[in-house]
Amino acid sequence: GNRNIKVYPLKAGFWESIRSGILKNNSAQVIEPPSTTTAAKEEPLPEESVLSETTKPDGTIEQIIFSSGGNVDVYDLQALCDKVGWPRRPLSKLAAALRNSYLVAALHLVSKPGGGEGGSAERKLIGMARATSDHAFNATIWDVLVDPNYQGRGLGKALIEKLIRTLLQRGIGNISLFADSKVVEFYRNLGFEADPEGIKGMFWHPK
User: Fold this and answer.
1) In this structure, what is the dihedral angle of CA atoms 131, 134, 139, 141, given to the nearest 10 degrees?
2) Total domain count, the chain
3) How do residues 156-180 score in pLDDT, each as one tens digit?
4) CA angle 157, 65, 47 (to 5 degrees)
5) Is 86 helix (H, G, I), strand (E, B) or coil?
6) Beta partners for 28?
7) Of the residues 8, 75, 150, 187, which is catalytic?
8) In the annotation, is 187 catalytic?
9) Rounded to whole angstroms, how far apart are CA atoms 15 and 162?
10) What is the pTM of this model?
């Protein structure tokens, strides 16, 4: 379905950072391409951390784990999209979107049998967000979603903050996203601002 969307970039010197590295004192610069070794080092390293842990009355231990290693199953993602009411997209395109993202952050609910009992842990996808980037100046955050059963716990905020932290560590400061009108205030509280410096999000459509 159609959704009202706007671009919400973080407040930053957008055009200044775009110009840096391209023009300086109106003189042309020769930029040497980075070596493959350097490029590999600039890729965000996978991260995994436990955000919360609870013990159920039956002894089962439940953990909510954040990871940024891109380990998201496309079928699990489609099921999560169904839960939040998003229109279905072809699985092949979902897989391509994950594969071509600069960073994919996920939240999994991991349930472990307690009391030293045997059995393997169950892992369930309950949240995801991803970012595309030119690996230099700009990044855009997409597909931020959290299972409705786990909303209201600050998980969406944790996803966005960890994405932003990783992007900033890579020197990427122009960060934008697309937001439904009903969640504008949520992103505003995280530091996003509508149309800073008069910048407008524009979308092509056939006439």
Assistant:
1) -20
2) 1
3) 999 999 999 999 999 999 999 988 8
4) 85
5) coil
6) none
7) 187
8) yes
9) 25
10) 0.75
